[in-house]
Amino acid sequence: MTIIDTTCVSRSDILNTFVIPKPVVHDQKVTIHHWQLRDVLIPNDEQHKHELIVPTGQDIFRYNYKTGQKSYFLKDIGYPPTCMASGYGYWAAGGQKGDLTLKDTTSDYQVSITTAPGFTINNGLCFSQLNGEVRLLVSNNDASIRIYSVPDLDLIDTLDFRTAVNHTSVSPDGRKMITVGDDNRVQLFHVTSLGHYELVTTMAGKNDISFLFLMSYY
């Protein structure tokens, strides 16, 4: 596992900025169980600065890359994760047979369900918040996004697509959503004040298949 610290260097009279990576290699076993899905190493919340949550087999660990200390986050969740996500005080993992686990990062609360009758692969996870309500969006290999309430994991809505959905990102204000999948289409949705998802536009990406797209405000 490699963590990159960056240093910015600017020329005095030219607005050019260069980033010089200084990688630090940490001897940690992070297991990957799908040759394409690698979204399995995530930062923890603000309460645990300098920590990462990493999977090793079916166990999940907290690793402090400043102190080198490692501790169990969850023991034997029952499957090796294909994807993980964290946000709003929660952590979630998905598996290759529709497995889905949610945990409160500040308590012992934990719940596990199966997301689809066909045991489809969970390709990606994304937390979002709208009107004070936290949601978990699950991108599935059966060409759908399933939206669950948090922390109960009650199914709120299912969005159907024409190909497998690999990743979903939601803007920090919870009002825009972007999806990518097993074709070159990038789809932008508006999230209404009632929590419905309305397609705004479809754009063509450069690659035939996309696996990741991030949204942020500066």
Q: Describe the strand arrangement of the main beta sheet, using strand numbers.
A: 3-4-5-6
SS element count, helices: 0
CATH level-3 fold name: Methylamine Dehydrogenase, Chain H
Quickly count the domains. Answer: 1
Low-confidence stretches: 9-16, 214-218
Radius of gyration: 18 Å
What does this structure look like?
The protein is an all-beta fold. The chain has one domain: YVTN repeat-like/Quinoprotein amine dehydrogenase (Methylamine Dehydrogenase, Chain H), CATH 2.130.10. 0% of the residues lie in helices and 52% in strands. The chain is built from no helices and 18 strands. The strands form five sheets. Strands 3-4-5-6 form a four-stranded antiparallel sheet, with no helix packed on it. It has a four-stranded antiparallel sheet with strand order 7-8-9-10, with no helix packed on it. Strands 11-12-13-14 form a four-stranded antiparallel sheet, with no helix packed on it. β13 (144-149) and β14 (155-160) form a beta hairpin. It starts with a strand and ends in a 14-residue tail after the last strand. InterPro entries: WD40/YVTN_repeat-like_dom_sf, WD40_repeat_dom_sf.
